[in-house]
């Protein structure tokens, strides 16, 4: 994005809690209109980074500029232009859907009539119009998430921060949330999200960084990352548990860029999965099941960290 | 349908300027709004208890018990009926109860159970704005409850001076002298178990031994200084002198100064603790 404005700039950004370093000197730049993701397992430092960007967690050291302002000294003015969807729902469950938006809009100093008008629009957007006068408590997890998203948009933010937006939702509810976020992206809202779901990152992010143990392991678009750190195809083989280790040994000389031996599967990173499967069978090894698939960000992560994302 | 749900850029005129953001008062009122919207659902019940509480206490203790006390002579009460002696004491003690109620569970609920404080901290509101907003709400509740109490007291004929009207702000101040320090403590908690201790070893002894039900001079001499340093005694003494029309300016000033100092110290510590809890 050569001609677009830099909205967030971080350099040597570090966050320590006592002896524990949650974020270890990371740097990145985020441009207007892009969807930017932090992908990594739990404890990688994603949420700590998000909270620093949200100006509710002062960095231990380093530089963090958001919308051209300093995240610590001008946090209040920055927050006025951010939307935040936290990892845990922070809705007032005793109030109605509408009252939650009213209170939040008032926090930003919006006049009542503006909030009323936006509430109508936003509830329609997140498909909660029928529940406007209902109490929040009995709503489903997916509905609460959508309400949180509506709430985060009440001040028409320039940057929307989403910390694990679909964690804990069932697959159907996740797809509804993804669909709404995709629409926001189409409307030009700058999205920053953290996730440990590679499919979420692939669907929503134009560009992402892979985080592990407080550091950035790699950066790029999903496609660039896959091209740089994985092969076009992956052959997944499953064996009977008693034959698993033995089979893996026999495969050592099958031509492949890399082989990963997981607890339940063997992964062969190859340019052509079918040809690799033929080579496996030529060695007299017959897997219980085999699957040829395209490489994903999960494979990138495995390559970079030696661990799986959801471990 | 949602094509225009969120414009990519906000309109320039809506961008809050630095002058508006800097105004702590404006911010505190926004935070107060949260409590007001919540209070809309519960106010009826609270008004009921604000009226019933003084009626029950003044009937049982002021009238019922008071007859027995008055028969034994009221010299030690300053030659006023037990009802007239007791009522302003209960008025001030009521402020303590209101303050405790507001500054314990609601704070923990906001920061721990519902996390509505964290939600608000993501907006232009700062931790201190959230504190101030809640204290404003506490001031409102204190004003309402003490005003109702004063009306009920008057209806019972327990008021001897029109100065009693100033007992309402005194109750607000007494309440704040408790609410601010307790709020500073409550915001640091993760569980509510310590609140039960606060009620058991804080509120109840204060309620009983701060001159509410009998003059502090009835206590053994060695323990009296302890009563004099408790903020409730200052609130009780001042409310009583206003209700009986015996207030002297210098004494009143001393009580007010003591209570104000406590409230201010509480606010300062609470500001720091709110920040530490919400900006981690």
Evaluate the radius of gyration of chain B: 22 Å
Number of helices, counting only DSSP H or I runs of 4 residues or more of chain B: 11
Classify the helix fraction of chain A into a percent range.
25-40%
Total count of domains of chain A? 2
Q: Termini separation of chain A (Å)?
A: 34 Å
Q: What composes the largest sheet of chain B?
A: none
CATH architecture of the largest domain in chain A: 3-Layer(aba) Sandwich
Query: Mean pLDDT of chain A, nearest integer?
Result: 93
Largest sheet of chain A: 6 strands, mixed
Find the count of extended strands of chain B (DSSP E, 2+ residues). 0
Strand tally of chain A is 14
* CATH homologous group name of the largest domain in chain A: P-loop containing nucleotide triphosphate hydrolases
Strand order of the largest sheet of chain A: 6-7-8-3-9-10
CATH classification, class level of the largest domain in chain A:
Alpha Beta
User: Which regions of chain B contain 5 or more consecutive residues with pLDDT less than 50?
Assistant: 1-17
> Quick one: which chains have the greatest interface?
A-B, 47 and 39 residues
Number of domains of chain B: 1
Blueprint of the fold:
The complex is a heterodimer of chains A (311) and B (280).
Chain A lengths: L5 E12 L2 E12 L3 E5 L6 H8 L7 E6 L2 E2 L4 H5 L2 E4 L11 H11 L4 H14 L15 H12 L6 E5 L7 H16 L3 E6 L2 H7 L2 E6 L2 E6 L1 H8 L3 E6 L5 H7 L7 E4 L4 E5 L2 H10 L6 E6 L2 H9 L6
Parallel strand pairs in A: 3-8, 3-9, 6-7, 7-8
Antiparallel strand pairs in A: 1-2, 1-4, 4-5, 9-10, 11-13, 11-14, 12-13
Chain B lengths: L17 H5 L1 H48 L10 H22 L1 H9 L2 H6 L5 H29 L11 H20 L6 H17 L14 H6 L1 H14 L4 H30 L2
Helix pairs in contact in B: 2-3, 2-6, 3-6, 3-7, 3-8, 3-10, 6-7, 6-11, 7-10, 7-11, 10-11
């Amino acid at each position: 994005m050569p001609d677009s404005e830099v909205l967030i700039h971080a350099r040597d950004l570090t966050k320590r809690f006592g002896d524990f370093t949650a974020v270890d000197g990371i740097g990145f730049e985020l441009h207007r209109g892009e969807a930017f993701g932090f992908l990594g397992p739990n404890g990688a430092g994603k949420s700590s980074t998000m909270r620093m960007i949200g100006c509710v967690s002062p960095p231990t050291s380093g530089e963090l500029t958001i919308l051209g302002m300093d995240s610590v000294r001008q946090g209040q003015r920055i927050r006025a232009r951010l939307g935040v969807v936290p990892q845990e729902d922070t809705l007032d469950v005793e109030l109605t859907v509408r009252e939650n938006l009213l209170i939040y809009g008032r926090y930003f100093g919006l006049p009542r009539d503006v909030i009323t008008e936006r509430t109508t629009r936003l509830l329609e957007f997140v498909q909660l119009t029928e529940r406007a006068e209902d109490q929040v408590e009995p709503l489903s997890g997916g509905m609460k998430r959508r309400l949180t998203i509506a709430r985060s948009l009440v001040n028409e933010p320039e940057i929307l921060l989403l910390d694990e937006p679909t964690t804990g939702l069932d697959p159907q509810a996740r797809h509804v949330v993804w669909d709404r976020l995709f629409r926001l992206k189409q409307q030009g809202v700058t999205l920053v999200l953290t996730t440990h779901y590679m499919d979420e990152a692939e669907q929503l992010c134009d560009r992402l960084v892979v985080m592990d143990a407080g550091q950035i392991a790699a950066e790029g678009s999903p496609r660039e990352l896959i091209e740089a750190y994985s092969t076009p195809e992956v052959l997944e083989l499953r064996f009977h548990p008693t034959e698993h280790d033995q089979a893996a040994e026999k495969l050592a000389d099958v031509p492949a860029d890399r082989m990963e031996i997981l607890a339940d599967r063997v992964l062969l990173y190859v340019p052509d999965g079918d040809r690799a499967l033929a080579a496996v069978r030529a060695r007299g090894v017959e897997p219980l099941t085999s699957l040829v698939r395209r490489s994903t960000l999960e494979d990138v992560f495995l390559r970079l960290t030696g661990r799986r994302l959801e471990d | 349908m949602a094509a225009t749900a969120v414009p990519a850029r906000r309109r320039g005129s809506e961008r809050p300027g630095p002058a508006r953001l800097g105004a702590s008062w404006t911010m505190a009122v926004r935070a107060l709004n949260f409590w007001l919207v919540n209070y809309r659902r519960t106010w009826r019940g609270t008004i009921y208890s604000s009226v019933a509480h003084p009626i029950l206490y003044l009937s049982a203790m002021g009238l019922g018990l008071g007859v027995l006390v008055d028969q034994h002579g009221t010299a030690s009460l300053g030659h006023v009926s037990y009802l007239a002696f007791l009522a302003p004491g209960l008025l001030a003690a009521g402020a303590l109860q209101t303050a405790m109620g507001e500054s314990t569970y609601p704070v923990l609920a906001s920061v721990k159970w519902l996390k509505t404080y964290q939600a608000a901290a993501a907006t232009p509101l700062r931790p201190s704005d959230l504190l101030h907003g809640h204290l404003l709400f506490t001031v409102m509740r204190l004003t309402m409850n003490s005003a109702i109490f004063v009306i009920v007291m008057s209806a019972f004929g327990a008021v001897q001076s029109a100065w009693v009207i100033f007992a309402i702000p005194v109750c607000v101040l007494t309440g704040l002298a408790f609410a601010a320090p307790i709020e500073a403590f409550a915001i640091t908690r993760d569980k509510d178990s310590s609140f039960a201790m606060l009620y058991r070893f804080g509120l109840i002894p204060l309620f009983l031994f701060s001159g509410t039900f009998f003059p502090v001079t009835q206590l053994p001499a060695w323990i009296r200084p302890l009563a004099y340093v408790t903020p409730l005694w200052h609130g009780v003494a001042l409310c009583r002198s206003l209700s009986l029309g015996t207030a002297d300016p210098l004494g009143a000033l001393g009580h007010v100064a003591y209570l104000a100092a406590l409230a201010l110290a509480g606010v300062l510590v609470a500001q720091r603790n709110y920040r530490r809890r919400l900006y981690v």
